[in-house]
Here is the input.
Amino acid sequence: MLNNIFSLIKNNTNSSNQSDKNKVEQKERIVKNKRLWKIICYFSIFLFLISIIFTVIYLSIFYRELIFSYNLNLEKENNVKCQDCVRRLIDGVYVKEGEENLFPIAVIIDNHIEARPSFGLSEANLVYETEVEGNITRYLAVFAVGTNIEKIGPIRSVRPYFIDWAKELSALLVHCGGSPEALVKISKENIFSLNEFYNENYFWRDNGKSAPHNIFTSSVNLKKYSNDKDLISGKFLSWSYKEGDMAIASTTHPQININFKDSNFTVKWKYDIINNEYIRYLADQQHLDGTGKEIKAKNIIVQFMETAVIDEELRLKIKTQGRGSAIICLDGKCNLGKWEKVTISSRSRYYYNNGEDVIFNAGPTWIEIVRPDYNINY
Here is the structure.
């Protein structure tokens, strides 16, 4: 009897211990399973991210048109919404009818170190950059002023070659004085000129800047002067522009380096493959205008022109008429080409070495004028 009782107690004890042991083993299995599922989840997420990265890289290399299709479709959508839009002559951008040929205004803008940052360049439709005396560069910024630009400048003096580029657009030339030769040229050739010396009401001086880097104007002032002189429509030949905004060629030249003599004026244009445009850098820093906006371009032309120093002031003579070499960059690719300006008044023409005219992207174009011996890397 007692043996049976002891045996029963022992069995109950063993059963209790076994049950506890099973519970511990079950908990351990649950913990292990949770850890395993966590590892599986993390690994799956890792594989998913890796697959996305490789897919993006593969598409960007082999199917670039898919990346650009959004921009192209967006432009087409905008064109559908704007049924009555036409191309603006100065840059090929679609605008409302009546705004396609606003009288162009060409403004001499300072690029001296003490003048920076300049204002208005991010809004310009066409910009020429070239050297003046002392290896300093200066801009001729052309506007078809259809938007409000509160501040443009600093305005500086004109040189004869700027007049030739403004003349091919029959543009209003805005400046503050000029070299003796340039002022004589303006008078002899009846150039439309707005000189701050004699029209100061259309300009103001910024007290925060030191002279001569402190003279500014605005689109409101320029439009007022144009209206006062009945300068309404432009008279120039437009370039040809592509439909759509998509890079066709592969991106083989992602950066253009323009090595002016003074390192404070060296220029880089870096290609943005997503937006199919070039972003400007000046003296190794991204070039922002005075409002903080990026300066961008759809087309870059590097134009080689014969240049000579002509006086003790180191003023330059640049041969603007004739023919010469050029580097034409758009859609992430640069090609060798030519420029041609048959007469002082005729519009400059750009074409590739095979004789085909350049078909530009709609949007801002920058023309970099350099001497034939300058080193251009791309």
